[in-house]
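Dear Dr. H.,

I hope your travels went smoothly. While you were away I took the liberty of generating a structure for the chain from your last submission, since the lab meeting agenda had it listed for discussion. I wanted you to have the full record in hand beforehand rather than looking at slides cold. The sequence, exactly as received, is reproduced here:
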Amino acid sequence: MSQAYLLADVGGTNARFVVLTTPRRGISQKRVLTLKSKDFSDFFSLLLEALSFFKVEPRDTVACIAVAGPVFKGRAKLTNLGWEIDERKIKAKFPFKKLILVNDLFAGSASLAKLKKKDLKLVKKGRINKGICMAIFCGTGLGVGVLVKEKPLTLISTEAGHIFFQALDSFDLKFLNFLKEKQKELSYEEVLSGRGLENLYEFFHGERLSAPMITALAKKQDKRAGQAVKAYFKYLGRFCSQLALCYLPLGGIYLSGGVINALIDFLFEKEYKSVFMENFVSSFRLNFLLKELPIYAIGHPFPVLLGCKAIVESLEA
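The corresponding predicted structure, in token form, is as follows:
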């Protein structure tokens, strides 16, 4: 292999890698390597495993690595792993031809420039479909990214998942106090990530189950699990609404991440969708605007890798 393109999505639970011979080549699911992030003591051992698997030489490789944490001046800290990453240290151990280190939601929002109709599920119709697009990823953590325009590729990465969760009624206040008692960060990440779903279930029922177990029970029409899922969609609708008023994503709101993928079927059931919609269209003065915005669920299996591909393409153009 003469020149290779290594694309990576390093999250708190899974790390996914793919190697392309050209950035314009499609991403085949069969070619993606998935590793468990917590099986590795640090980022370098994880990256070495991927490079060994694909048998690529760093000197002949352009790498775009998206990580689940803020990236600032070539440095990153993975929020839910505690790993600290420095571009200079990566280059010292792995002398890539070119290295691009970005926040995963920065890459996730870049994917919106490459998604096709077949990759999307329409959650809510909207009359407007041109303008800024906003991506919300609910997984091990909670992240938000914004696509300003496709050409030139212009993106905004955020840490909006860590903005404070606020109580609007007595029920919210009880849940907020529950999070306080459990010494959780009082942010939306503790409500809309995988552990957020776990927090909701524990709040209602006094026992903690894993997010996959709660989802499985809800799919079997377990009422206790369904109660937690319904509350989850209440707060997801509110979060989408608040961010929509911040960024005015006239091009649409795009939902993705492991929790969304697991729960997406519920969002098309009237009982759950009505809760989501009531809390999305909940602005006293600006409901007319919120009603105009389309909302989609991303069906592509690897949107962050697709975004890394878009970033590399934009630099090679």
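Two observations you may find useful: Residues 223-247 form the longest helix (25 residues). The two ends are 21 Å apart (CA to CA).

With kind regards,
E. W.
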